[in-house]
Specification:
The chain is built from 6 helices and 17 strands. The protein has a 17-stranded mixed sheet that branches. It is globular and about 95 Å long.
C-alpha cells in the first residue's frame, strides 16, 4: 500500500508536537515550584463609610520672638520763631543777674535751698533710673516689646521634644487633653481605601490600587495591592503585605511579603522576617532589629497612629523619623512635613499634609513614597506618590470614601 507524502508529513508533525508537549510537561514537573507560604489573609465585612470631620490642622513650631526694634525718634513740636526769641530773652535775664553777682553775694538760705534742690535733683534722677529699670522688666514680662534675651528665653523654654511654644500640644490645659486622648486611643476597626492609579513607566500607566488595614484581636495585617493595566489582563501586579501584632508603641511587624508579577513571567517573592531583636532580610542576611522598626507598608498605619495620638508631629516644618525594614536593608528614614495641600476626594476637597522623603529615587529596588495624610479622614493617606526614578512613578489618589468594618467588641491585648 502506497502512503501519500502529505499524510506522512502530517503524521510526522503530529508526533513532533506531541514530543514537544510531553517534554515541556516533564520539565515543568521537574522544575522547582514557587511556593506561596504567606499567612492567610484576614477577612472583614465593611458596613460603613468614613465621612470627613472638621479638624484643626497642626500648627508649625513657634519661632523665637523677634528682637525689639529701637524706639522711633519723633520730631519735637517747636514753637514759632518769634515765640522762641521771647522765651530766650526771658530765660537770659535771670541768668545775666546770677553771673554778675559774686559767689558770696547769695542771700541767706539760698545756698541751703540750692543744696536741697540739688539733692532733690539727684533723688529724682535715681527715681527715674529705678522707674526705667522697673518698666524694662515689666515690658520683658508682658512680652509687648522684645529684647535680645527674649529669644534665648524662648529657646530655653521650648518643649524638650523639639518644638516651640506655639505647639498647642506641648503645655497648658490643651496638653493634658491631648495626652488623655492619646492614652484613650483605640485602634480603628478594619478599613479599606481604594485609589485610582496613573503613572509613567516606558509610557502612560493606568490602574487600580487599594490599602487594607485588617485586625483580629491583637493581630494586624496591612496590604497594599497594585494592579497596572486591565484587571482581567494586568501588565504588572504587586502585593505588599505586613503581618504582626499590636504593641504599646504601635505596630510590631513580624513578617513582610512582597509579590511582583510582570506580564506572563513567574512571580517574584521577597520576604522579611522579624523575630525578637533580629531581622532576616530577603537575601538571607541577618541584622539587628532597632526599636520601633516598621516595614514598607506598616509605616503608613504606624504614622497615622502617631499623628492621631500626637497631632503636633504632623506640623509643617517638622521631621518625622522612623527605622524601616526593606527587602534588602534596614535603615533610618526621614520625612519632611510640608505645607497643607488640597486633595480632591469623593467627599469634596480635603486638606492634607505631605510627607516628603529625604531619600531620592535612584532607580533601584527601593520604592520612594510621598504620602498625603488627611486629618479630617482619621489621618488616613489620601494620596500616595511612589517614585522609581526621575521619570518612572505611580500616583495613587483616593477615589472612594474609606470603608470601615463594625467595631470589634473586645479591645486588643497589647504586646509589651
Amino acid at each position: 500500500m502506497r502512503i501519500r507524502r502529505p499524510a506522512l508529513l502530517a503524521g510526522a508533525a503530529a508526533l513532533l508536537i506531541h514530543a514537544v508537549l510531553v517534554r515541556g510537561l516533564l520539565a515543568i514537573d521537574a522544575a522547582p515550584r514557587w511556593r506561596d507560604d504567606r499567612p492567610p489573609r484576614l477577612q472583614a465585612l465593611y458596613v460603613r463609610t468614613i465621612e470627613p470631620q472638621p479638624q484643626v490642622l497642626p500648627e508649625p513650631p513657634a519661632l523665637p520672638r523677634p528682637v525689639a526694634e529701637p524706639p522711633v525718634l519723633r520730631w519735637l513740636d517747636l514753637p514759632a520763631l518769634p515765640e522762641l526769641a521771647r522765651r530766650d530773652e526771658a530765660l537770659a535775664a535771670p541768668l545775666e543777674g546770677m553771673l554778675a553777682r559774686a559767689p558770696g553775694d547769695e542771700p541767706d538760705g539760698a545756698g541751703a535751698a540750692g543744696a536741697e534742690r540739688d539733692g532733690e535733683g539727684e533723688e529724682d534722677a535715681e527715681d527715674d533710673e529705678d522707674e526705667e529699670r522697673q518698666t524694662g522688666r515689666a515690658v520683658g514680662q508682658d512680652g509687648d516689646e522684645g529684647s535680645p534675651g527674649d529669644a534665648g528665653d524662648t529657646a530655653d523654654a521650648a518643649d524638650p521634644r523639639g518644638h516651640g511654644r506655639g505647639d498647642g500640644h506641648a503645655r497648658g490645659p490643651g496638653a493634658v487633653g491631648a495626652r488623655a486622648d492619646a492614652d484613650r486611643f483605640e485602634w480603628p476597626p478594619s478599613t479599606r481605601l481604594r485609589y485610582a492609579l496613573v503613572g509613567h513607566w516606558r509610557g502612560p500607566l493606568e490602574g487600580r490600587a487599594q490599602v487594607e488595614w485588617l485586625r483580629a484581636g491583637d493581630r494586624y495585617q496591612v496590604h497594599l495591592d497594585i494592579v497596572i493595566g486591565a484587571p482581567f489582563a494586568p501588565l504588572i501586579t504587586r502585593q505588599m503585605s505586613s503581618d504582626g501584632r499590636l504593641a504599646a508603641d504601635g505596630l510590631r511587624p513580624e513578617r513582610y511579603d512582597e509579590r511582583t508579577r510582570v506580564l506572563w513571567r513567574a512571580p517574584v517573592l521577597q520576604t522579611v522576617h522579624v523575630d525578637g531583636d533580629r531581622v532576616w532580610l530577603a537575601g538571607g542576611r541577618v541584622v539587628a532589629r532597632p526599636p520601633g522598626l516598621q516595614d514598607a507598608v506598616s509605616q503608613f498605619v504606624q504614622l497615622a497612629w502617631q499623628f492621631t495620638r500626637e497631632p503636633w508631629r504632623l506640623a509643617p516644618g517638622r521631621v518625622v523619623t522612623l527605622p524601616l525594614a526593606l527587602p534588602r536593608r534596614v535603615g533610618l528614614w526621614h520625612y519632611d512635613v510640608r505645607d497643607v495641600e488640597t486633595i480632591d476626594t469623593p467627599a469634596g476637597p480635603v486638606q492634607a499634609l505631605r510627607l516628603e522623603p529625604r531619600v531620592r529615587a535612584r532607580g533601584g529596588a527601593d520604592l520612594i513614597p510621598e504620602v498625603w495624610y488627611a486629618p479630617a479622614l482619621q489621618y488616613l493617606p489620601v494620596r500616595i506618590l511612589v517614585r522609581h526614578d526621575d521619570e518612572s512613578y505611580v500616583d495613587l489618589t483616593i477615589d472612594r470614601l474609606p470603608e470601615q468594618a463594625a467595631p470589634a467588641a473586645p479591645p486588643p491585648r497589647l504586646v509589651e
